[in-house]
Design goal:
Chains A, B: InterPro entries: PurS, PurS-like_sf. The structure is a homodimer. By secondary structure, chain A is α+β, with helices and mostly antiparallel strands. Chain A has three helices and three strands, in the order βαβαβα. Helices cover 41% and strands 33% of the residues of chain A.
């Protein structure tokens, strides 16, 4: 079973009030040197079977029609190795 | 200027109703073969100056105290090359 990640972010030209709120709060909280923050969504899809070109094409279509609003959002589809992902998550604990 | 990405996901043992709603909707919409969906947040931070070990340590602290609720969420801090990111975004358009 493979994991496919879809990252959905507001397009650069779209105002991101959520990200701005985070960015403005940082100096108050003692974190300097962050000039911009954008906040988006991350979807982790567990795909049954192999992630071949056909599966990726379907996931791309899914992301385009259902996960992202392509009028205001960009999305990126990435395949992640299950093993790597778990290691990264372990490291963050 | 470098971009640092913080991915915040609910811990695996925490129920994710948002992800479940997406997963249950997929067969209705004609997408089979996705056995699980988890939805999380992605923060893109633009960092002034070099992203060295000290800067990463600060961003790790920032993510831990402010971006993620570590009782229920895991987070991963990743450095992204500006160039690569732009290319990936271009590809998604």
């Amino acid at each position: 079973m493979a994991r496919v990640v879809v990252d959905v972010m507001l397009k650069p030209e779209i105002l991101d009030p959520q990200g701005q709120a985070v960015q403005r709060a940082l100096p108050r909280l003692g974190f300097q040197g962050i000039s911009d923050v954008r906040q988006g969504k991350r979807f982790e899809l567990e795909v049954d079977g192999p992630v071949d070109a056909a599966a990726l094409a379907r996931i791309h279509e899914l992301a385009e029609t259902f996960l992202a609003n392509t009028v205001i959002e960009d999305f990126v589809v990435k395949v992640e190795e299950g093993q790597e992902t778990r290691k990264a998550e372990e490291a963050a604990k």
